[in-house]
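Predict the structure of 2-(Hydroxymethyl)glutarate dehydrogenase.
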Amino acid sequence: MTAPLIGFAGLGVMGEPICRNMLQKSGAEVRVFDLADAPVDRLVALGAKKAESVAALAAEVDILFLSLPGGPQVESVILGKDGVLEHGRKGLTVVDMSTAPVSLTRTIDNKLAERGIDFADAPVARTRQAAEDGTLSIMVGGSDAVFDRIRPLLAHAATDITHCGPVGCGQVVKILNNMVLFETVVALSEALALGKAAGVDPDLLFDTMSKGSADSFALRNHGMKAMLKDSYPKGAFPTDYALKDVSYALDLAAFTGFRAHGAELAQARMEKARDAGFAQEYFPVLSRLMDKV
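Done. Here is the predicted structure for 2-(Hydroxymethyl)glutarate dehydrogenase.
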């Protein structure tokens, strides 16, 4: 069976290592595009071919992967001028690995279907190191046929690939995953501040919590690796990105008719961090801004 011609647009913190894993493990020809030259050059050095635009990719490849900052960029690249909708050929499969609003995702699916283009949402979870290692978790929304088509390629970038349901369901699961993560980081920031104020060693506090019912991915990664060290590097998952994702959770709450109080609190804490000048720092920086009575 002939390997599909792959296109990949959006070679940022997550997109570049995902694309690199697909390039090096799949044996397929991969064409790449990004507004920045450096990641394109690195991938070309490994055997990828540079594309001149997303439009060129959409017109030529069999499967087009997108990894973009958020909903506005996804909407522009797919539905905007010189976008995928305008230039994509019948039979193309588009896989959006960005995190984007559920309603937008389903609108895109309907519009692409009118042109004979298949679509799946496949947002990713876990850390930048997981993207480097090819051990991401990917949540897919799409038809059974599309899922079967793209799963072998996603397996080069992930150890866990879950078919969550029809288009949009991958985004639902990813958005709720991040919502719970953000709320947990808020809880950890409160535990850290209260424990320190009460005279408990912070390292001992989090280590002991990791042995009990408070253990979590957030505790072991965001808590122990960032909050205990008071280290929030730029270039990780910044406060602005986290605010975008929590806004999608609140949009989903409104769409389903619920009030998500925990997500509202997480949003308020991250807005405080942003307003304090930490928009580009790793989002657990919100722990620096605990309120006192």
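The radius of gyration is 20 Å.
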